[in-house]
Amino acid sequence: MREFLISAVPQLLETERRSDVQLVRLASASLLARVLTLPLTGGANLLSARIVVGDVGVKGYALFALVVTLPQLLPVGDMGLGAAVIDACSRRKTAGIDHVRRTVMTSARYLWFLGLGIAVLSVTFGLLEIWPELLATRDASGASVAASCAFAIFGLGLPFGLGNRILTALNLNHIALLLQAAASMTSLAVIALATQSQASLTVYCAAGFAGTALAGIVALVVAGRLLRLPVLRDVLLGVWTGHATTNVWQFAGPMTLVVLASSVTYGKDRLVLSHVAEPGDLAAYSAGAQIFGPLFGVVSVMGVTLWGEFARRRDSAAATTVRSLARITAFFAIAGLLMGVGLVTVGPPLATWLVHDQVVVGPGLMAAFSALLLAHACNYPTAMLLTDPHGLRAQAICCCSAAVVSVVLSFVISEHLGAAGPVIGSLVALVSCIYIPCLWIALHRQGDGRR
After folding, report:
1. How far is residue 232's CA from residue 210's CA, in Å, rounded to a whole number?
2. Alpha carbon 276 to chain centroid distance?
3. pTM for this one?
């Protein structure tokens, strides 16, 4: 027995190290894809804005910008159904390929219902001339048609977003990012062609949503070839209730709460500052957030990459150990720290330049953003480890608690520290209500040998 342990333990440790190296490589691939595609997507969006302004003027661009950001009013995203799809696809070898198909079709069905509801509502608003009132525009006919068509295309494209989730589960998150960049380029091409043909504002507003839907369709085709399943057909047929279903709400329910609570925790900052701080503080925060946002997106993309691999480990003998979690967290912490240093160094002058030197964005605000970025980076591995139903329920409770704490602290701190107040409030809420409790749960579960 002693000889067996002496020979087996080093082999197990070496296998664990190789598995962790694989996780780091996957996260690095997503990081590289994000860095490479960020200039493409950013440049495409800037060129699109310039073309629209040149064609329909500033007022037309204002309406365009308002319409294309309408989906941000729906913080539920895919209603957490993507979580069920990622888990099923990641565990396809143990759960069975039939479970994958039923999960995809069931999730697509609910998204079709949501999307059709959005489309019907948007067209109804157009017929009743409600859109001009909601958008506060005098161009009644243009606003109604543009908003109705764009929002309807957005709704009908929701089921195709499952393609990106499947690619994430297949360790191909970098491919999903490349397809997203292609969607931005496609939207730019449509807008450029529309300018030459003197198309209406409706085409400009619908271009981005159509490009996103097309990228989702391509992702479903790629995923189907890899899984050797008719994934696109299953998504299209998912709207029919006659097909077999499976329970997806054990994932979707908690995940929806996580998304809603997170939107409150990190999305209330400007509203808080508008009530308790000076207008200059709100401008300074907005400028700093413009720089923080893309970096947080990089950390988020890296973190989501871990989801599928951690789900696979739960069904295998190669469970994620405490040592493994520590190594992955250290890698994310280093990445977050390096980005945070860049944020503190380059952020203040760049953010001040963004507001034409009318407001000074100090290093204190950017240091707060950097600390929040580091906290997110450290939390992601733990959050992705707890993506089974039990773990998601725990995260939902923690995120709801964080939302309450963040709102209260942000109001109190912002009265004294101004623009940095909401950031510090979110930081304290994230560390105390989410990271520490979830880390304790993860360590306790791994120590007990439970998945």
Report:
1. 17
2. 29
3. 0.82
Rounded to 10°, the helix 81-90/162-169 angle is 30
Nearest CA among 310, 303, 252 for reference residue 442: 310
Closest CA to 89 of 271, 227, 273: 227
Q: Residues 404-447: pLDDT tens digits?
A: 999 999 999 988 888 899 999 999 999 999 999 999 999 887 65
Q: What is the per-residue pLDDT across 349-371, written as a single tens digit (0 to 9) for each? A: 887 776 667 777 888 999 999 99
Q: What does the chain come to in residues?
A: 451
**How far apart, in whole angstroms, are the C-alpha atoms of residue 399 and residue 219?**
31
DSSP string, 177-208: HHHHHHHHHHHHHHHHHHHHTT--HHHHHHHH
Q: Are 361 and 284 in contact (CB under 8 A)?
A: yes
CB-count burial class (<10 Å; 0-12, 13-18, 19+) for 77: middle
Please answer whether residues 172 and 200 qualify as being in contact, where contact means their C-beta atoms are separated by less than 8 angstroms. no
CA angle at 84 for the pair 79 and 90, rounded to the nearest 5°: 145
From the CB of residue 56, how many other CB atoms can be counted at a distance below 10 Å?
Answer: 18
